[in-house]
Amino acid sequence: MKKHFIAVCCSLFMASQLYAQPLYKNPKAPVKDRISNLISLMTLNEKIGQLCCPLGWEMYTKTDKGVIPSDLFKNQMQNKPIGSYWATLRADPWTRKTLVTGLSPKQAAEAINALQKYALKETRLGIPILFAEECAHGHMGIGTTVFSTSLGQASTWNPELIEEMGKVIAMECRLQGGNIGYGPILDLAREPRWSRMEETFGEDPVLIGVLGSAFVKGLQAKDQNGKAQFYSTLKHFAGYGIPQGGHNGGRAQIGQRELFSEHLAPFKMAVKAGAETVMTSYNSIDGVPSTSNSYLLKGILRNEWGFKGFVYSDLGSIEGVAGHRVAANVKEAAAKSLQAGTDMDLGGNAYGKNLEKALQENLISMADIDSAVSHVLRLKFEAGLFENPYMNPKDAAKIVRCDKHQSVAKEVARQGIVLLKNNQLLPLDKSIKSIAVIGPNADNIYNQLGDYTAPQERSNIKTVLDGIKKIVSPNTQVNYAKGCAIRDTSESDIASAVEAAKKSEVVVLVLGGSSARDFSTEYKETGAATVSDKKKEVLSDMECGEGYDRSSLDLLGDQEKLLQAMIETGKPLVVVYIEGRPLNMNTASEKAGALLTAWYPGQEGGTAIAEVLFGDYNPAGRLPVSIPRSVGQLPVYYSLGEQNSYVEGPSTPLYSFGYGLSYTTFEYSNLKIEQSGKDTFNVSCEVKNSGNREGDEVVQLYLRDNVASVSTPEIQLKKFSRIHLEKGETKKVEFTLNREDLSLYNQRMEFVAEPGTFTVMVGAASNKILLKDKFELK
């Protein structure tokens, strides 16, 4: 009887304690009610803290007993409990985190666990933190899998593969405690002088939108309970990829119709795919900074597209509103940005130091603050962070950069290699007696990884030299010479390269660019690298990556001299470009026996390139951007259509959007167009592998609205499909064109499908249309 009495008392006590808990701690309560309850309990200071996202890499301290919260973190959390931290696990020269001072995946999980524990146990309301990390081509942390940068990803034209990649990136970051991944980058890149072109999916809104949506689905893949454990951040909203003069963050000179038809279209698709966070861009559009543009952030993003998540500023872009001189000071900039719909301040100072005073001065209302806080809290509740904020460090150590993930990285690299020219030189014979591997990018691990990459163990990266040595016969003599650097000319040794080439049967020359940061580079507060005018004994290779805008697209340093020297040897020459933007390829295109670009192919890039060179993999990458002949042509994107020739030469690009070669050939036939609904048309054709080996083909469907109420592109990609065909195999490829595919923004800026005739063009590239027919929308 006594035991029964004690049990009843314990049950009543537990029930009373559960009942005494605030509603927001009840996981069974509706999220909307939990948000309202929590906001009602918060002080102004706590609300403002939820809208701040400071830099995170100083928030932990490594000790002999493990990773613990730093004093700086504790002070911030006690002063104003923070809503989100950015780049807590980031390691690079800017953060000064190295392989020694940074965190392994296991240590990273321990660090985030410790920080979350402090937030939940040592702050008044116990609100968990959202940890955001850079994830555009792999989580930017030590020991993670490094994928091809976005131009390489886009060259796969394979949304299923990009979704799989997104799942891997999300898993690796989440296992270490991350909740938000910055990516994909959906900027429409039509200015190759711009330093961040490597981060984009190229020049076409449909290709960007399809691949970006696939990336979002991968990052935000649902668990067994139907919940996303990780969130994607779309960057950069909007019009960021066409800065004047190629200057990073420069103004976007763009009309409203082009803005909606092309630059906003990929974001609209990705929001529809479920993206939960968006980041504003540094630039202004028609004089209005994106970070304080209420028409974009509220009128379009929330009201028209139904976006339910929250909006990050880019780092320091709220302060930048004052820099654009549309606010007298940072306080006014903070007020304008909050009212416009920027919920979270990346950097934290603009909101953290100014919102309270802005409220006192009636520049904003409490409703403005509460609205932003509710958007942030919703994601925390829906992710289950109040109940399950911790990760298992052992899982992070076991799974991050596992063999399966590395195989996905290799597949992305393989599928993203674009063969541009081949005079029957490739594939090479593995039993070749000797081969020269030459060039500044032949054996440099960081030059093939791109910007936003953490420090790497040498053994984790396969360079082109590594890949060739592994794939050729043990009897093959591999002769390596660097020849020159990317930019520096003080230590060039072209003579040694010529000597290596002369004693070899064939030359593989690896040229291009680099986004590799070093510890001597100076950085702005935003993290962008600063191009220095100071004379250095040795120039770094970096000529691309955030902050490294170009005034030309020529190969830098002595690379052109090295190329010419290889040509003069008379040896069969394969030129490989490893690059972050389309660089000048005129000489290589004219003189080399084979030419390909791998962009920045990631950790498995050297293996992937070698497999293509020696025929273990049949290349099928297609260009996501046009390759110009000169800077004077710019802009030179494909949907401009035919242009008048210049006095000095043609106006066409050297290589067009959608272009790429294979080791086999394909035939297109039997184009059919059938109307299947009031404004729906089915388009089909047959594609045959008419060559001597299996391979992939990227079938591309372009459309032209022949007569419309406003000017439209002469040619516009609408659908595409990457298919695999065995030797001699024929497949039927089918596409569906719906009302949205046929619509335009008319003179009243209404998105409508106008009656009229449309031309369907199907082919292997934007300049290689093989089938054509028309249909009428009545």
Automatic annotation (TrEMBL):
GO terms for biological process: glucan catabolic process. Coiled coil: none annotated. Residues 697-766 form the Fibronectin type III-like domain. It holds the Pfam family Fn3-like. SUPFAM superfamilies: (Trans)glycosidases, Beta-D-glucan exohydrolase, C-terminal domain. Residues 1-20 form the signal peptide. Keywords: Hydrolase, Signal. The keyword Acyltransferase does not apply. The keyword Hydrolase applies. It comes from the Bacteria. Gene3D superfamilies: Glycoside hydrolase family 3 C-terminal domain, Glycoside hydrolase, family 3, N-terminal domain, Immunoglobulins. GO terms for molecular function: beta-glucosidase activity. Belongs to the glycosyl hydrolase 3 family. This is Beta-glucosidase. It comes from Bacteroides luti.
